[in-house]
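Lab meeting, action items carried over

1. Structure of the four-component assembly. Owner: GW. Status: complete.
Input record:
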Amino acid sequence: MTSGEPTHLPTLEEVARVAGVSRATVSRAINGGSRVSPQAQAAVDRAVAQLGYTPNRAARSLVTRRTDSVALLVPETGARFVSDPFLTGVLQGVTTALAGTELQLVLLVAQHAGDTARQLRYLRSGHVDGALVTSHHGNDELALEMSRLGLPFVFGGRPFDPDSVAVPYVDADNVNGGRLAAEHLIGTGRRRLATVAGPADMSAAVDRLDGWRRALEEAGLHADAVEHGDFTIDGGTAAMERLLRHHPDVDGVFVASDPMASAALQVLRNFGRRVPDDVAVVGFDDTMLATTTTPPLTTVRQPAEEHGERMVEMLLEQLAGSPPRLGGEILPVELIVRESA
Amino acid sequence: MTSGEPTHLPTLEEVARVAGVSRATVSRAINGGSRVSPQAQAAVDRAVAQLGYTPNRAARSLVTRRTDSVALLVPETGARFVSDPFLTGVLQGVTTALAGTELQLVLLVAQHAGDTARQLRYLRSGHVDGALVTSHHGNDELALEMSRLGLPFVFGGRPFDPDSVAVPYVDADNVNGGRLAAEHLIGTGRRRLATVAGPADMSAAVDRLDGWRRALEEAGLHADAVEHGDFTIDGGTAAMERLLRHHPDVDGVFVASDPMASAALQVLRNFGRRVPDDVAVVGFDDTMLATTTTPPLTTVRQPAEEHGERMVEMLLEQLAGSPPRLGGEILPVELIVRESA
DNA sequence: TTGAAAGCGATACCAA
DNA sequence: TTGGTATCGCTTTCAA
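Predicted assembly:
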């Protein structure tokens, strides 16, 4: 019964017959209804309802050259994507913002490094009207490729070298985030400061580290205690262990993502350090994770959902015909004080 | 430059011209290449590469009546979806399994309760070849509607009343999960047992509770200490507080999801109970969360990714023409012992 | 305001 | 093995 036999779908043609008008009229009626008489409109509406008609998207796309769908491109491997609460927050913002439109979301998640070629081919083939690109690494290869595509798109996170690669993007104020973390730790009397930064090839990580360093230097403190992690829990564990080995006297640490910060808390406990008494910890993200740790994380909040929503809005502008605004929109961050620092 | 002006995409027609063959031949060549001479195939391959040709999906869909895409339907509101690590795990499994195919994933996330009508309309309109349905509540309305659709589909989680609504589904062995939790607590000497169960209108919650109760009764223990939460952190907090109020002497509790279990740990700490010394806690899921809590959670592991992968496989079978196997595929669960119990 | 008709870019049948 | 051609369902001129 529930087999692949799709019960026949009504076509425009049939609606026209039932409504007693032409196909052209039906088409106008279901698309905004400009230049159709009230009675024709009514007849069409009735026929549509009666038949349960919905336009065939493929047929429509073929002529309008629009697909009414956009892609969310995730260059990260799937594992990274779903396990990062910030990224899932962005996803939620995207779906929310898209809900108000006719646009469908096609999810393009890389499976292995180097999958980008396949993703780009998909985008190039006119399957979607635009693309949202999240969480990209390193060199700005992808940004360049996207620019060449001639397809509307928005980046989540600034490109690595925004001067040489101008693309529309949304980003959090990561520099200020790093600074806020530093100032909080300094302000609460910590002096042996260190940080678990993100990957050196991600702009978000670079910016957070940058803000952190500047604030430390302004306060006359050393800013050379730095270990890098990959933003994941496992990466955070390894980085925090290195940090404690190299700087056993640390009394305050800024960990550049909540997953890494939750790992840092575990490591500190394993090493017999009390948080925040012996070592204060400030995270970054303020996702669900921040409240489930012990102690709950003091962390820099970046608005993940708003991030996703803004990306969609910027894409919609382009789809509406506006030229892409090259350059970024920076979302504010704020420090959320809980118990870890 | 990156404007909405899609640089002209080559068509079959042009490939044919460049290759010096007919459109029909090109079509055969790019689709499996049966009944095309080696030289024709070679000429086409060359032309395709030279022009950077990719078939227009809309045009193809129009005639093949396939869309080469499937929907992941999430009746939950977006918030629930992205904040539930189990669901994101399923998502990952789905994208992984789909990566090996030509199928694209369209994400259909409900925005508000009652959004299902819109989602169903979308499915009904032939926009996708099949659907995966996750995390559904209550009465089996949706299952019935899906059956009526005549579209291949697979449920994640059994329908509420599988006898009256026969649909293909993948599910975890929730009953056994509840039993494992109970047996572990009993086996470690706990006697005042209670549970924070999931929503009474979700089959997964009902099954976990069922297994739990049966094991307790077999052991001659009372199984009446039950509070319900909605599987979220906030729901877990409220339910755990009620539980402690009504059963202050509890020494072992099974919390039916990791998010709720992490909340339960916080509540217990706030009430001055030590875990596991005073109260042992067993969770359910074994997601990332289970390792970030203090103490790390002893929890029943259900294979989220495999769940998603199996759903895709069952859908692929249907798309390949097999009749849908009505009834479920049950995935085994196992107890992961950490420190909370 | 309406309808006739010309495509959009592919597939698939049929005859060669 | 090939190529010509009808066709999928819709939008969009262009005349009426």
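2. GW to write a short summary for the group page. Key points so far: The first strand of chain A starts at residue 69 and ends at 77. Chain A has three domains: 12-64, 69-172+305-331, 174-302.
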